[in-house]
Amino acid sequence: MSILVLGVGNILLSDEGIGVRVVEALEQRYRLPQEVEVLDGGTAGMELMEAMANRTHLIIVDAVVSRKSAPGELLILRDGEVPALFNNKISPHQLGLSDVLSALRFTDEFPQKITLVGVIPQSLTPHIGLTPKVKASLEPALEAVLAALQVSGVTAVPREVQDA
After folding, report:
1. What are the backbone dihedrals phi and psi of residue 36, each rounded to the nearest 5 degrees, phi first?
2. Is 65 strand, coil or helix?
3. Tens digits of per-residue pLDDT, 67-114?
4. Are 15 and 66 within 8 A, CB to CB?
5. Residue 126 has what DSSP assignment?
């Protein structure tokens, strides 16, 4: 089993940094088994191909633009829904991640399972820090990541429990 939890986003563009902030919280607050890698992908694109290749489960956390949802709402997509989302170009990182997913399919290294935990941004303007609505979604997004890990049989152990 090889799982990657990938947070993507630009922390200099307000809510665009939510994916990075969620994986930071995951690493700070939980211990994960060796088969789970947590990665801050920042704004990287094709550079992530090797890290994403041949995973049993790829969990992506990102800001996702949607006209049907309100700022701060979560959008959880699984498996075939994820590449379709990027084909519709509604994520700020659609080009980079869409290219990587296409390349992985072409090289037969596509992840067995994909989960996207998307958070609808309120603002993508230059500013360090999340808007209050999106900041309030950090905990539910983290819970969604933990639930996705559970689907693959992984239980994250809170640090204070294990460190005590």
Report:
1. -110, 120
2. coil
3. 788 999 999 999 988 766 655 544 454 456 778 888 898 999 999 999
4. no
5. S
Pick the CATH number of 3-152 from 3.40.50.1450, 3.30.870.10, 3.30.30.10, 3.40.50.1820: 3.40.50.1450
> Closest Cα to residue 59, out of 98, 29, 9, 19?
19
**Which pair of structure tokens corresponds to residue 147?**
């639930």
Structure tokens at 121: 């941004």
What are the φ and ψ backbone dihedral angles of 74, each rounded to 5 degrees? -95, 145
Let me know how many helices (H) and strands (E) the chain has, helices first. Answer: 7, 7
- Per-residue b or e along 13-24, where b marks 16 or more CB atoms closer than 10 Å to that residue's CB: bbbbbbbbbbbb
Contact 75, 120 (CB under 8 A): yes
Contact 30, 149 (CB under 8 A): no
Displacement of CA 41 from its chain's centroid (Å): 9
- For residue 130 the two structure tokens come to 């999340």
pLDDT at 119 over 50: yes
